[in-house]
Structure formats: structure tokens, C-alpha cells
Amino acid sequence: MAIAKNRSVRGASSGIGGKRPFPWVTAFLLVVAVGALVWWFYGEAARGYAMAGTGYGAKNACSCRYISGREIGSCEGDFVPGMEMVFLSEDADEKSVTAYVPLIASQTARYHDGYGCVLR
Length: 120
Prior knowledge:
Strand order of the largest sheet: 1-2-3-4
Radius of gyration: 26 Å
Distance between the termini: 87 Å
Largest sheet: 4 strands, antiparallel
Shape: elongated
Strand content: 15-25%
Helix content: 40-55%
Structural class: alpha+beta
């Protein structure tokens, strides 16, 4: 004799098409929404700090590289704590160093004889 099992349809009335989204989709959308809200409130301040940090980093790294004659990699060690997001790139032909925070800010300092390193 066969026993019939009672199977209930889960989620038949939840969401579009009767299916619930995966929990990670909901979590991802929540993180994006919170991130957008935080950026809306603090974005201008973050851009200001990023511009100040990249200006400081470009000027000091340019002086370190073209006045002191050190390698660009050793110049990153001169940064103050909290500048881990500032990255450096060098253009030896132009004698310039660019400091940047990805997608937010970028500043370039160029070495000029008699003036030292100057932000552009």
C-alpha cells in the first residue's frame, strides 16, 4: 500500500513568479543601499579628505623621489598613518608623481629646477 505525502508549495504567494530571491541577493541589495546612503551623507567630506591626502602624498613623494633621489617604493614609507588608500605612480620623463585614491581623487606634483616639486 502506498502512502501519499502531503507536499506544500513554499513561497507560492511570495514575490514575483512565486519565488523568493536568494538570501545573498537581498543582503547584497541591502549593502548597496546602505553604502549609497552613507556616500550621500559623507561623500563630499570623503572627496575633500581624498584631495588633501593625494596632494600631500604627491608633493612629498615627488620631493622624496626627485630631490632626495630615493626610489618611489621607499617614499610610500614616509606617509602618515591612515594613508593606506593613497597610491603612487611615477612619470620619469615628466619628473612627476601622481597620488590617487581610486575613483575619488588624484593629484600630480611635478619637479621644476629652482622651485622643487609643485602641485599642478
